[in-house]
Structure formats: C-alpha cells, structure tokens
Amino acid sequence: MSNKVSRTDDQADDSLEYAHAQEKPTSDDPLAAIKDMRLQQLAACRVKAAEEMQAMTDKSKTNKEDSST
Q: Residue 27 sits in which domain range?
C-alpha cells in the first residue's frame, strides 16, 4: 500500500515540476528543453491513461448492469 502513496507522490511531484517549468522563461539549455519535452509527454500519457481507465470502468459498470437485469 505504501507503493501507491509513493506513486501518487511521484505524480504530484512531476506535475509540480512541470508547472514550474512552464513559468520559467525558455533558455538555450538543451537538457532543459529535453526535460520539458519529456514532462509534456508524461503529462499527455497520464491524461490518456486516465481516460482509458475511465472508459474501461464505465464499460465494466454497463456490462454488470446489463447482466444483472
């Protein structure tokens, strides 16, 4: 169970770091640009995964309701 808490904390930390990266002016540092790009990709993947999980949950609930009637 502590892994879930740790995983959630990691996600919150990434989101916070991404938000801070958006506030800073763009620099000529290529590593910073790569880090920003990866944070954007990570955020997009998390949104997509959350949407897919919600769709699976909704489908599962619909199937359970159909089979119970």
A: 2-68
